[in-house]
Amino acid sequence: MKLYFAALVLSLGLMGPAQADDWKRYTSAATGFSISLPTDRFAIEEETAGRLSLSEIDGTAQLDVFGVTNADRLTVAQFQDMMEAADPNRRITYRAVGKSWFVLSGYLADEKDPTIFYAKFMLNGAGTALSAFEISYPKAEKAEYDQVVERLEASLTSP
User: Fold this and answer.
1) Cα–Cα distance, 59 to 115 (Å, whole number)
2) pLDDT tens-place string over residues 6-26
3) Which of 13, 20, 122, 158 has the fewest CB atoms within 10 Å of its CB?
4) Which CATH number fits domain 20-155: 3.40.50.620, 1.10.10.10, 3.40.1000.10, 3.40.190.10?
5) In terms of Cα–Cα distance, which of 125, 92, 128, 121 is closest to 107?
6) Domain boundaries, the chain
């Protein structure tokens, strides 16, 4: 009976935020990218054309999503180099790259308590626009947020 109940709980999505059904699709009218957002966990702090900033309702995590034009026609490698150099307080421990995307992850070096950041950047097929999300959260909550990051990553579309 216990095994059946555990399977039922898992199938109904009652085991944490990544399985919750309180995710809503957000599409930027300004730039055209879209992403699914965990609305049961994050609240919108600020919304401007092409950018959305959210903060965790009962915690310290932050989530930013945005889209921008690529007027200079930077390549994935050029964007990656630019983002790696953008903030000296980031200690990058993970990098992944594909034909039209890249990921940077690691720790914020100036934080008192260890904070993880994870950012994914994605160029559209023509290379004329970029979409991205970045999430930061306490290292102590890594196991919980790994599932959230996976879902965010899978749902991000390019402009």
Assistant:
1) 13
2) 332 333 333 344 444 699 999
3) 13
4) 3.40.1000.10
5) 92
6) 20-155
